[in-house]
Design goal:
The chain is of the alpha/beta class. Helices cover 35% and strands 16% of the residues. Strand 5, helix 5 and strand 6 form a beta-alpha-beta unit. The chain is globular.
């Protein structure tokens, strides 16, 4: 079986990481899988860069220009939406022609236009599309928040500067309706929550929505010596340590401000530093990921260590190993990659009860689900996690049994085989 996995980037962003892991897992299970990308960042032989760099750059810039113009030359919505009005025809490539199954992932920012997506869907090959966010089942937005227009027909998009009944969202929704109609398309939701949200969309129609989580490579993410990890990272040896990370930790959707409020409830400002290696509050926040607005760090009420972006898996595993608790304070996550990775390393997960995180955490069994956006409850969850003293090995096994490479690869293989049998 030949499978072509398509994603804008090879390794930048959660979708890229998930797609790369899937390609590796499929190849380990006897499938000839390749990954087709706009941005190739490694020397992996299974990753193919699309040989049209200038056209891809032009497509990316043209799309941004059209959004900027529609937004009356304002920046609002410039990066929150994608209209897929330009891209590259991948159906002419030999990797596409030899593939039995086409597996789309995150294909925005000038990689594929709606015309090219329609061409893929009309190729006669089974097409699987993993929902790393909601762009495939809404119109132009990746995160619809509380908007439910896609249940009937997107229009008057709140993420545009000047929304109206025939705005960009209405026009792109029309294109998607046309492209999806009668196509051999199966959506894959990375959590039950994503599936439930996707099924509300008028675009899904008669298409199936399967649930297959992302892969967590548990050979890479596993418990390590905590004190050794802390020494390497400069983390106080005896503190209670919370780890928090995202591609952009200052992005409002990720909820760092809510975590800071919860941490403030845990901090006793009057506690003096002791001689046993503790920080003044006995609490350390370990942060990783990009950050454009560093002023958000000035509000952290306890000792913190900020590492910046971490792309190396071994370094990330060591970072998780240094912590006691991992927190996701997001408004929602489609899956909750950092939660599952850190859990595999022995961290107790704490999150809000909205999103794919609920597929990972069983409340007060292997973690804590706080009511969104209750920061008092989030603080209570942190206290519970510090006191729960859950077994690192048990947490690792919980992740391995549900999200390990073998289990998730087999579920994808089963889906591909069923789709090929229907041709």
């Amino acid at each position: 079986m030949h499978v072509l996995v398509i994603n804008t980037s090879e390794s930048t962003g959660g979708a890229a990481i998930a797609a790369s892991r899937l390609v590796d897992a499929l190849n380990h299970h006897g499938v000839k899988a390749r990954m087709l990308v706009r941005d190739k960042q490694t020397e992996r032989v299974t990753t193919i860069a699309i040989p049209a760099r200038l056209r891809l750059r032009a497509a990316f810039l043209w799309e941004r220009l059209c959004i900027w113009t529609a937004n009356r030359f304002r920046r609002k919505g410039l990066w929150a939406v994608d209209i897929a009005n330009a891209g590259v025809d991948v159906t002419t490539l030999p990797e596409f022609r030899e593939a039995d199954v086409i597996h789309l992932n995150w294909v925005n920012q000038g990689l594929l236009s709606m015309s090219q997506i329609e061409r893929i869907l009309r190729s006669g090959k089974p097409v699987v599309w993993t929902l790393h966010d909601f762009w495939p089942v809404t119109s132009i937005c990746h995160h619809p928040a509380d908007c439910t227009s896609d249940a009937e027909h997107c229009h008057t998009c709140p993420q545009l500067v000047a929304p109206h009944s025939r705005d960009l969202s209405w026009r792109v929704f029309e294109r998607k309706l046309k492209a999806y109609d009668g196509a051999p398309l199966t959506f894959v939701a990375v959590s039950q929550w994503v599936r439930q949200r996707a099924l509300r969309s008028a675009l899904v129609g008669k298409h199936a929505v399967e649930v297959i989580p992302n892969i967590i490579p548990t050979a890479l993410f596993h418990p390590e010596d905590k004190q050794q990890a802390r020494a390497q990272l400069g983390v106080p040896a005896h503190d209670r340590v919370v780890v928090f990370g995202a591609a952009r930790i200052d992005q409002p959707l990720k909820g760092l401000n809510l975590l800071i409020q919860a941490l403030r409830l845990l901090v006793d400002d009057s506690q003096a530093a002791t001689a046993d290696g503790k920080s003044a509050s006995g609490l350390t926040l370990l942060l990783f990921g990009g950050c454009k607005d560093h002023s958000v760090l000035s509000d952290i009420p306890c000792h913190y260590v900020y590492t910046g972006p971490v792309s190396d898996g071994s370094a990330l595993s060591r970072l998780y190993a240094a912590a006691d608790v991992v927190v996701s304070a997001s408004a929602f996550e489609t899956f909750g990659l950092t939660l599952a990775e850190a859990m595999a390393c022995g961290c107790t997960p704490v999150s809000f009860d909205r999103g794919g995180q609920t597929d990972i955490i069983s409340h007060r069994e292997n973690g804590y689900l706080a009511h969104y956006p209750d920061t008092d409850d989030l603080a209570a969850g942190l206290k519970w996690a510090f006191e729960a003293d859950l077994s690192s090995d048990a947490l690792h096994h919980s992740v391995a049994s549900r999200f390990g490479e073998d289990a998730i690869a087999r579920r994808h293989l089963d889906l591909y085989e069923r789709l090929l049998q229907r041709r």
